[in-house]
Amino acid sequence: MTIKGLKGFKDILPDEVSLWQMLEQKARSIFxxxxxTEIKVPILEKTELFVRTIGENTDIVEKEMYTFxxxxxxxxxxxxxxxxxxxxxxxxxxxxxxxxxxxxxTIGPMFRHERPQKGRLRQFHQxxxxxxxxxxxxxxxEVMAMAWLLLQEIGLMASLEINSLGCPKCRPSFKDALNSFxxxxxxxxxxxxxxxxxxxxxxxxxxxxxxxxxxxxxxxSILDHLCKPCEEHFDEVxxxxxxxxxxxxxxxxxxxxxxxxxRTTFELITGDLxxxxxIGAGGRYDGLVRQLGGPDVPGIGFAxxxxxxxxxxxxxxxxxxxxxxDLFVVTMGEAAYEKGFGMLQKLRGAGLxxxxxxxxxxxxxxxxxxxxxxxxxxxxxxDDELAKKExxxxxxxxxxxxxxxxxxDNEEFAETMRSTIS
Length: 422
Ligand code: HAM
Known about the structure:
- By secondary structure, the protein is of the alpha+beta class.
- It has 16 helices and 16 strands.
- The strands form 3 sheets. An 8-stranded mixed sheet has the order 1-5-6-11-10-9-7-8. Strands 13-12-14-15-16 form a 5-stranded mixed sheet, with helices on both faces.
């Protein structure tokens, strides 16, 4: 019996890997342009870290974490997101002492035991970004602009929705208003919302049921309950976005699935992925570092789901970024085969991407192999030509063929090839 992989855990096959590499390279290049540096944090953390940050009454903590006891009986969790581990590392390593504002990013797998479906996996990957140490609304606009630029440079479109969730000073008045509203519509909402209205009332606004959403059109808006400083902050974020030409809309119903957010929250939404429409999301979490025992520094960040970005990239039909081979060496005859093998190491040493056939295939099949590997050039070596120290170099795009002179010294020949074809 063959052993299959776990449900919701996906292999990323060689055909797809070049897209992943392209995405990662683009993301790194853009993050570096905005002054971010990479941090690598562990996949396993103490369970408490996520319970205390994401919140006890969230879906992630209530039902989605991969939590287990290790051999010493400690409760360990496979990270469901990247913000809490980065903040833990920031505090533990005293990164705040090195620079007042830290701009950090991390790229890697996250784990949530959700029901797998299109665009929703149990192991998925995030490009995750955090700025620690700045209160400025300009920073909020800037991180959103950075996500926007990344989408732009990889050729994807999304809409940016923003909201403010207020702060511990003003949110209670909104919660009270929401609670009174929810008391009045208990019979008309789903079981989940009824339960949530007791444990985490803000989350009801995120319910997917059309029926519940109909009820909530009359719900109070958080934006009517913001205190003066939160209102000013939100106004400046909107001004900042407008100033740098980032289009957005305000969605006062956006509450997010993690409890640590304060003030600005945002989501990047696409219409091209079915139900899993959020390709990225984030927001401010001003009290979180302190709550975890660190200094009183504000923070903001976002994460983008890499699988969702890759799916969108795959929907573009003109996209072909599979790697190209520089040269495929086609050989006919024993002497040519040996000469070819001798050359290969030197050609690679000269920096060229080169392959040849070791299975004794016909010339036609070797040409096909060259094509399959997207070789830019083919070097055709035959025993007769070899005796005359000649070979044929074919440009696969134009079909043009030229004769080339072989050298006894393979290293010298490799250098000539490199300057001819690169
Ligand atoms: P999040 O909204 O939970 O936020 O996740 C961010 C993104 O990760 C989502 O918009 C989605 O693209 C992707 N994602 C989430 N769950 C899955 C899944 N099961 N399968 C595939 N993709 C998924 C956070 O994780 C926050 N830590 C973001 C943040 C950073 N906030 C501040 N800093």
